[in-house]
């Protein structure tokens, strides 16, 4: 049963804001079986540690699938009627799309198009990255533009949107 | 008619948060004629593209006036009774004041002093830039101090203040 | 009398968001005698100016104690029944702990353990620093991880949590 979750939820927050833990708590009561779509890749020790600590916290009942680039395809292939999905996180997906020189608009539109047909609720986690000083380098500026556009698209489709700071959720929509 | 807008509104948000589009939607129903006070200068291709995309979205009914430095003067000279004003954005104005080595306190006080006498409502858009790591360089630190002080002054005078993230407004005041 | 303040309050905000002034206004009506625990050190002119302007604004009735590293100890030693405490700010404390190569988890747990036994209410001010682009350097990334973890811990214990932007408080808890 996953009746407590609306079809699409977006959880935005800063670094170490508790956004992933909050999103997990949204998903866990919804079903005994959950799908974790991980966009992060363990490319260095810092990232490996971060992934391990997330895995340790999540505990049992989660099936993990890596989807660093083909996120829409992984959603469609793996979502099941009684298995709500947690996608963590959209900003790492944007990073991977940029590194892979993918067409970001095509990827964003593909993700948005896949959402209405999914048989299970999906919760997206993402970093808000646009509230600091304008970055010096153009790639970082492009990254935060892409992330901001994607957040607007997903928030527009989402039934519920939360902003998390210091572990506390603020409901922005729903 | 511009009866739906209060005298002064401040719309704060991050990069690509949808703050300008939200502010435009506040202003557009208020009158068939609107004034757009642009503080940005097209000094490179990135900025030129940004300005073009904003102009394309705004569509008809807007008169655009450039006010990179003399913002209070442009407000007083161009505001008309049936023409609400959108100022986009305060952070670029702060940048221009710093580049021009203007006295920022004098400029801020001049802007605040001009507001009560305006014949039309005005909506300010600005970037919140103080929620990242402390910048390495002193100019960036000074910039975010100036921007923060200006936001506090305008928010103190404003009837309504919104914080926009992922295209969603959160009312902070009003 | 300090009956108006709950035992623990956290005030989060960006640079120049007005968070310190807001926190002072929470504390000042609670008692004619107040304790100001300053974690900042006047190590350069910029910091000296910032400290002076904070001191000038606070005015009378405040006793200032410096607690750059031993914050829990200073709280326990100086808190009195009729003297509410303002700690400004946690992010500078984290900086000092890192510079002093202290064990941050031990320090965080020590602070949290000290809170329930205090005879007076305490208000913590801290900078939210996790909402910008991921910093290039590892120390800055570690800093924002530490700050984020501490904010979650204090927010979890706090009775009231505020997020301040442009001088305006948004209640996140309480």
TrEMBL record, chains A, B, C:
Catalytic reactions on record: adenosylcob(III)inamide + GTP = adenosylcob(III)inamide phosphate + GDP + H(+); adenosylcob(III)inamide + ATP = adenosylcob(III)inamide phosphate + ADP + H(+); adenosylcob(III)inamide phosphate + GTP + H(+) = adenosylcob(III)inamide-GDP + diphosphate
UniProt keyword annotations, A-Z: ATP-binding, Cobalamin biosynthesis, GTP-binding, Kinase, Nucleotide-binding, Nucleotidyltransferase, Transferase
Top-level EC class: transferase
Domain of life: Bacteria
Positions bound to GTP: 13-20, 38-40, 66, 88
EC number(s) stated in the UniProt entry for this protein: 2.7.1.156, 2.7.7.62
Protein name as it appears in the record: Bifunctional adenosylcobalamin biosynthesis protein
Organism: Hoeflea halophila
